[in-house]
Design goal:
Blueprint (H helix, E strand, L loop, with lengths): L2 E4 L2 E4 L2 E3 L2 E3 L15 E4 L3 E6 L12 E6 L4 E6 L11 E9 L5 E2 L2 E6 L24 E4 L6 E5 L1 H9 L7 E3 L9 E6 L12 E5 L1
Parallel strand pairs: 10-15
Antiparallel strand pairs: 1-2, 3-4, 5-16, 6-8, 7-15, 8-14, 9-13, 9-15, 9-16, 11-12, 11-14
Length: 205
């Protein structure tokens, strides 16, 4: 038996199949597999934009921000799931909250399906895609600094895989029509201070 650690969890019989970490596998590829498949992937794109700088791009920043400093911050994350399993039992996005300077803490945010394609290299507030709209979507509480924000996208993930919707990722849209120095900051895939804190999508079959 092979014991390995994935994201702080001990898993037995961990293997890699097509670059995917698989736990407790007995048989693969058309043959009945026992146990749980656990897949973690980093975003292909993660970036934010702000209403006070409508043409600025922060695609290479090592953080995204939500809330606002007398303006509005909106963020997006996109994952390549083309080689990932369908009809999963769980699909969750995790973002690690990092410290930021002065200002009050944003206690919750909403998230929403993005409805058209976008790129972290070109995203600005003026060209933000449909679905990236302030204060829209499903609400989720934001943890304190040093903890992981968890977003359950299981239904949407399965809809992407079934072809119900095109996969353009999710938007994080805040929780208010306006913000007075209220915000939260999260690590992106460019975060190098601690690479274990990069955002990821976890899929369990």
């Amino acid at each position: 038996m092979s014991i390995k650690k994935l994201n702080g969890i001990l898993w037995a019989n961990v293997k890699k199949v097509n670059g995917i970490a698989v736990a407790n596998i007995n048989k693969i590829n058309g043959i009945e597999a026992g146990g749980t498949v656990l897949t973690n992937v980093y975003p292909s794109d993660d970036a934010f934009c702000r209403s006070s700088s409508v043409n600025n791009n922060w695609g290479d920043a090592d953080y995204i921000q939500l809330g606002g400093w007398a303006d509005v911050y909106l963020a997006g994350l996109k994952f390549d799931i083309s080689l990932m399993p369908s009809n999963v039992s769980s699909a969750k996005v995790y973002l690690y909250r990092i410290a930021v300077g002065s200002g009050s803490s944003l206690s919750s945010t909403k998230w929403n399906r993005i409805e058209e394609d976008w790129s972290e290299d070109t995203l600005t507030y003026s060209n933000r895609p449909d679905g990236m709209v302030n204060n829209t979507g499903t609400s989720v509480n934001i943890p304190s600094v040093g903890n992981w924000l968890e977003i359950d996208i299981t239904t949407l993930y399965n809809q992407w895989k079934a072809g119900t919707y095109n996969n353009y990722g999710i938007a994080l849209t805040g929780n208010s029509s306006s913000y007075n120095n209220i915000y939260a900051r999260f690590a992106t895939k460019e975060y190098t201070t601690d690479t274990s804190k990069k955002p990821y999508l976890e899929v369990v079959v």
